[in-house]
Write a sequence for this structure.
């Protein structure tokens, strides 16, 4: 049987349409699979929210007690800054990096594996960092850190709101709202209890505890509300912070140690949760130290 050219063209067009339809269906199927991979873990996360158990909290408090003892002992010793504990070559490299406007950090937990230690139901993160601010005076740095009502100007976008609620000399009670994005965006309302101590004319240290932490749902909308402790995602359960400042070498060394407690990482949700709970503590510390140096230098120029 003879086929006319028009029949061949028509058949070719039908095959093209069919192939295009198969391609569209394949793309649609893949898109639905990707969408399911994104939404299903979120649904599961909401269905199986973490719970801060008393055993987890006890383990964290025991760890903080040891850190507190370590900090008190070092304040009474010769090494006010942690770089002074390093060996000769390591110390020279750290000081050179600081003088070149760098930030040096170290993880005080999981040194051998580079991982934060798991405890029952949670993870402890302990990071320590330092920055050098050339030409600054101790009072310059102290004035900026204690200027909590304007921390949004210095530490945005990490700090979204800040306000001194109560002050008695060197004792502050401060409200701070934090915002952080890493795969997911997390907004937290916190209350901080902060004490400053004058160690010498050139040295100051401070100690702060987050006495209240609440994750915020639907932030910035009319539906905004604080989640209850048993209905949040466990991205930050506890936070303890130590600051040290020393004026020398033509500037001020600023040291910060932050110990935080977060939820453990459940099976199947690592891609969603792990980047936040494992990398945010270090990144937040580096950002805070860098922002402090930038803000002090900007105030000096003004």
């Amino acid at each position: 049987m003879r086929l006319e050219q028009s029949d061949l063209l028509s058949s070719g067009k039908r095959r093209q349409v069919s192939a295009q339809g198969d391609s569209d269906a394949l793309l649609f199927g893949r898109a639905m699979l990707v969408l399911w991979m994104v939404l299903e873990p979120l649904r599961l996360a909401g269905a199986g929210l973490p719970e801060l158990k008393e055993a987890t909290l006890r383990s964290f408090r025991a760890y903080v007690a040891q850190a507190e003892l370590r900090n008190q002992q070092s304040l009474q010793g010769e090494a006010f800054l942690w770089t002074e504990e390093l060996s000769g070559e390591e110390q020279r490299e750290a000081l050179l990096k600081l003088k070149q406007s760098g930030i040096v950090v170290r993880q005080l937990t999981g040194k051998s594996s580079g991982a934060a230690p798991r405890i029952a139901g949670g993870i402890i993160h302990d990071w320590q960092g330092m920055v050098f601010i050339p030409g600054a005076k101790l009072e310059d740095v102290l004035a900026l850190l204690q200027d909590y009502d304007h921390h949004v100007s210095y530490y945005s976008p990490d700090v979204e709101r800040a306000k001194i609620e109560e002050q008695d000399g060197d004792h502050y009670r401060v409200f701070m709202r934090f915002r952080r994005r890493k795969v997911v965006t997390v907004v937290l309302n916190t209350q901080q209890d902060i004490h400053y101590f004058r160690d010498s004319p050139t040295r100051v240290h401070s100690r702060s505890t987050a006495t209240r932490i609440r994750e915020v749902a639907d932030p910035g909308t009319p539906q905004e509300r604080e989640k209850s402790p048993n209905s949040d995602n466990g991205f930050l359960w506890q936070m303890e912070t130590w600051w040290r400042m020393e004026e020398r070498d033509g500037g001020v060394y600023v040291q910060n140690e932050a110990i935080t407690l977060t939820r453990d990482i459940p099976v199947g949700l690592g891609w969603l949760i792990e980047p936040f709970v494992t990398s945010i503590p270090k990144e937040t510390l580096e950002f805070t130290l860098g922002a402090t140096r930038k803000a002090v230098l900007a105030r000096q120029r003004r």
User: Anything to note?
Assistant: The first strand starts at residue 103 and ends at 107.
